[in-house]
Structures are given as structure tokens and as C-alpha cells.
Amino acid sequence: MLEDTVKKILQARVYEAARETPITPAPFLSRRLNNQVLIKREDLQPVFSFKIRGAYNRMAQLSDAQKAKGVIAASAGNHAQGLALAAKLMGVKAVIVMPRITPEIKVQAVRARGARVVLRGDAFSEALAHARELIEEHGYTYVPPFDDLDVIAGQGTVGMEILRQHAGRLDAIFVPVGGGGLIAGVAAYVKYLRPEIKVIGVEAEDSACLKAALEAGKRVTLKEVGVFAEGVAVAQIGEAPFAIMRDLVDEVITVNTDEMCAAVKDIFEDTRAVAETSGALSLAGLKKYVQQRGVEGQTLLCINSGANTNFDRLQHIAERTELGEQREAILAVTIPERPGSFKRFCKIIGRRMVTEFNYRYADPDQAHIFVGVQVKPGGEDREEVIRKLREADYPVEDLTDNELAKLHIRHLGGGRPRQRFDEQVYRFEFPERPGALMNFLTHLPADWNISLFHYRNHGAAYGRVLVGMQIPDGDRGHVEEHFDEIGYRYWKESDNVAYRLFMA
Ligand SMILES: Cc1ncc(COP(=O)(O)O)c(C=O)c1O
């Protein structure tokens, strides 16, 4: 069977539609990980993912009669775009059935490649059922996303290119796994020619259907799948891919959402390309492999398998990268509500970079602080911050692994104090450097009480900060003189309608 698959890969027709993508070295990551890291750039395909390879090769096998009737698939993802382009290049009609909830951007991308889009049902299974009805009615040929020998052979050309382009030492290839088409093709080719190279599958931990199948010794269907990496959100590994690769894959690594987000950032830093989360999946696995095994001096290759991400998702991805690298700790700290206690708290945090700060007066006795601080990867530094805070008698909750806190509470912190009090509110621009906050606090008179503080690191040169203060009567006339002395730009916001409505 291995030899048959390799023959099919060697004969696959992909280059009328796909390009041979380069392997790019990743110098930053290589230095950080003490291994040579290489990235196969499937994000550079005309449809921004490798999926064009399998779709085109499958279509190239169709008879003239089948071509005349047209092709169909149920997919809201990269397969839909690959098939649409393949059909357009061959002058064949393509119909893509998508669930009604599919984001408009994906519908448009498929239409732009000339395919007809049919929106049907709320879930993928309903879209698939409707595709079957249309096949009955019109005689279209179904082109599956992964469970097909010609699709696997098309994807296997990725493996063929890797060995041709990189003839030297190669210790392991990390491959993202959804339904298994890509890894089956890559594993077959690579193991046939260079069995010493490890082929390691990488799955999102909440859609790890290959890992489950290998453990059970047969294909199993996951009860639920997470959709954060939608390209690989598959409940059951494909039958044909599993049969080909089950004895070829050396191991499977699973990674979580934050680790995938961190890998999106790593790819960006080394190549300036923005991968989708599935596209960065195999790099997240590579990093975990290095971390867990402590390997050094090896040559490791991952595949950036796609770059079809919605622009507005990037904010969320960026927010979670620090967590993915265990470089951010999220803490809830309760401090006494009196002048100077905020400053004392900041002293304990020290010169660590603060990524987020939410502080709101709660009652005359105490205030809750929601804070994100940069810590050294590995967790020990986080424990040290927590220990120091506890030693200073501040109650601390570690929220670093709390999904509710990371997704929602960080945006909802604050609110109105429980009783009326006199508060002056100013907005500042702080230069984004360690110590800027301490400098600010040091310049404020000791008897001014901070009653509100909100800061968010936007990755820009200046941080935006909102501060509420209780200022003693005698100082009221000189507030801005103090601020002028500090030298940061500021705006008075006490009369801002948004503050009045939601915070005052
Ligand atoms: C970007 C990306 N990476 C990886 C995969 C997984 O490929 P396969 O389903 O062949 O395992 C997909 C599948 O659509 C994908 O779109």
C-alpha cells in the first residue's frame, strides 16, 4: 500500500494550480529553541492553503462526462476555496454547500473563485445532507476534503517537495492533522524514502481524533470538537488516511488554544506572514516537542498550512499569545482602599511589564485589582510574584488558566462604586517602558487616593491609561500642575458622558 501511495504522489497533477512553495528558515525561533527550525510555506499557495493540491489532483482524475456535470463539496473552509479554484481552472462547474452561519467573508471568497454557493442548514451535517440531495438530483461528483486516495496523493506532494528541497539532515517533520489527508500523504512519501525522519502529527487538544484513534486501535468519533482552529475541527479521522498512516506516524502531540496563538506570533516574527490558527498548529507542536524532550541541535520542520484568517480575529489571537508562552500571569488581587496602597502593590510587581490593569474602588475598605503581568516562561516567576503578594498580606487569585477571566472579565472589570464619592478622572498617555507607572505614582502627593485605574498594553509606543483620583480639597486647584511636572500627555475626563453613564 505504501508503494502505491508513493506512486500516486509522484504522478499527482497539482502544479497546474498549485505552486512549489519554499522552505523558509526561522532564525529567531531557531535561536530561542536551540534547534534549526524550518517552515514549509503552504500559506503562499494561490488559495493561501495547501488544500488546492488535493482538490486539483482529485478533479484531474474525472472523466469528461463527470466534468460536464460538475463537482460539489460541503465545506466552509479551505477545501471549499481549493475546490472552487481547481474547478475554475478546469472550466468545470462547482457547487459548494455551506451552513447558513458561515461568515460572509468565506462565502465571498468562494464566490470570487467562480463557484456557486448554496447556504443550507445551521450545522455542517445539514449542509452535507443537502449536498447528497443535489448529487442525486444533478449527478455532480462529490470531492471529499481528505478521505480519498487522490486527495491524499495531492497533499503528499508537500512531502515530496520537502525532501527535494531539503536534502540535508532532517530529524522530524511536524504536520497539522484535521481529517488526516495531509499527514497521510506526507508520511507515506517521507517514510518510503527517508524512514529515519520522524513524522509527528499535531492536533488541537479539543479535536484530537487521530490521537484517540491510535490509542483505541481504530477510528473513533469524538463527542464534541472545539472549533477554535476550524481548519482541523474534525470529529473522526478519515478512513483512507488512517489506513495509510497508522503505522507510519511516530507520535501525536496535542496543543491548546493559547499555544496555537503563540505559534501564530512566532511565525509572524520570523516571516512576517500571518498564519491562521490551524496553519500555526504544527509549529505549536514542534515547540512543545522541544520543550518536553529537551532536544538540541536538531533540524525540525513544520508546515504553515494556511493563512485564511479573518482580520478581526487577530486581536483575540494577539491577546492570548503571551498566555500561550506562559509569559503572562493574570491575577486578581484585593488591596486595602487607602492612599498609598496601590503604590505599594505596584512596588511588589516591580519592573515587570504590566500588560493590563483594571482597578476600581469597591467600598471604603477594599478594592479589587485585575492585573496581567509579564513573567518569565515556565511558571516559577509567576509563583514568585504570587508568593510576594501573599507575604504582603494581599489575597491573590491566580486566573491565568481561567477561561471566563481571560475571555470576558478582563473586558468587564470596573463598574460603579457602591456609594457616592468625589472622583476626578483623567486620561493619560504613558510611554510604554518599565517604571513609567511607578514614576507617575511617585509624583502624586501621598494623600491622593487612586479610585480607578485602567491600563491595557496595545503593543504601541504609548500606553493608554485611565485614572480616577480622590483629591483632598486643598489640592483641587493644583491638580494639573502635578501632571505637568510628570510630563505625560493627559486629558480631563470627569465630564465625559461615557464615564458619567457607566462609571460614576
Ligand atoms: C490550514 C489547514 N491546516 C491543516 C488542515 C488539516 O488537513 P487534513 O484534514 O488533511 O488533516 C486543514 C484542513 O482543512 C487546513 O485547512
Automatic annotation (TrEMBL):
- Quote the pathway field: Amino-acid biosynthesis; L-isoleucine biosynthesis; 2-oxobutanoate from L-threonine: step 1/1
Needed cofactors: pyridoxal 5'-phosphate
Q: Which residues form the ACT-like domain?
A: 329-401, 424-495
- One Pfam family recorded for the sequence: PALP
Catalysed conversion reaction: L-threonine = 2-oxobutanoate + NH4(+)
Q: What is its EC number?
A: 4.3.1.19
Q: Name one GO molecular function term.
A: threonine deaminase activity
Q: Does the keyword Transmembrane helix apply?
A: no
Q: Name one GO biological process term.
A: L-serine catabolic process
Look up the domain of life of the source: Bacteria
Q: Which CDD domains match?
A: ACT_ThrD-I_1 (cd04906), ACT_ThrD-I_2 (cd04907), Thr-dehyd (cd01562)
Q: What keywords are annotated for this sequence in UniProt?
A: Amino-acid biosynthesis, Branched-chain amino acid biosynthesis, Isoleucine biosynthesis, Lyase, Pyridoxal phosphate, Repeat
Residue spans crossing the bilayer:
none
The enzyme's main class, written as a single word, is lyase
| Record's subunit section | Homotetramer.
Q: Which family does it belong to?
A: Belongs to the serine/threonine dehydratase family.
Q: What does this protein do?
A: Catalyzes the anaerobic formation of alpha-ketobutyrate and ammonia from threonine in a two-step reaction. The first step involved a dehydration of threonine and a production of enamine intermediates (aminocrotonate), which tautomerizes to its imine form (iminobutyrate). Both intermediates are unstable and short-lived. The second step is the nonenzymatic hydrolysis of the enamine/imine intermediates to form 2-ketobutyrate and free ammonia. In the low water environment of the cell, the second step is accelerated by RidA.
What is the protein name for this chain?
Answer: L-threonine dehydratase
What would be the name of the gene that encodes this protein? ilvA
